[in-house]
Structure prediction request, 278 residues.
Amino acid sequence: MTHATGPGYLRKVILLTNLTMPRRLACGMTMIRTSALLLTILALSAPDAVLAQKGARGTAAEGRVLFHSPALSTNGLACINCHSDFDEQREPDGLMRAGHPLYNATQRATFWGQQKNDPDRYQSIGDAAVVCVEHFMKNPDKLTARQVESLSEYLKFKSPRPLTDALALAAAADKTGQYLRHDGGDRIRGRELFYSACHVCHPNANGGIGVPIPRDKDPAFYARKVREGDGLGAVLSGLDANAFALSAGNFMPFFGADRLSKSELRDIIAYLRSLPAQ
Prediction:
């Protein structure tokens, strides 16, 4: 025995049902079907509807564009280059970012590793974003109020289960400043890691968003650059309290031990030192 299917068959069933039941009941069934259809449409369009909700000055949809656009900077850097906006464990994209994910991050107690009792700590993810744009993205115009609101709304949309605990940054600068034992890495593995972690700012180890990477330095040179970055890594590691300044020209983010292990760093260094001289 076969069963007829398809839209035409369903229309016939609905028509026959309406003809064979009392008129009042048929009208009621039609209303139920219409309501169910509307609920289905609303359910399917819910993410877009939420994304388009207006904040005080902006929208989440505008924030999504800002988050992924290098036009927000003057050096070509975009938020997505340093921070993912998704669950990295469940949906890895093959890239290793210096910054921690901003997925579920809007309710963190602190940002940028600041402590709760810091009198000048950033009060929200929007305040932290302003500093990122000014310092790392080298945009002296910072962000407009609408852009801050749009980015905040987008990251709220990307926080279905917001975390409230402060994020402990695993800064790993060498407190001796010597950075010993960073040689002996695997250059083959290092090539893969380089393209995951470094290529976006230093394409093929050449200049791009960042400066060209020299090929002939000691391993300690590369380790220091990666662990201290623009100086913030040195500050958070207790190496040098005055190493970081927003007004300085440096803008390289540091990689903590939880973002790039020592073994991975050694492999990247081995790859860089294997490249032909410029």
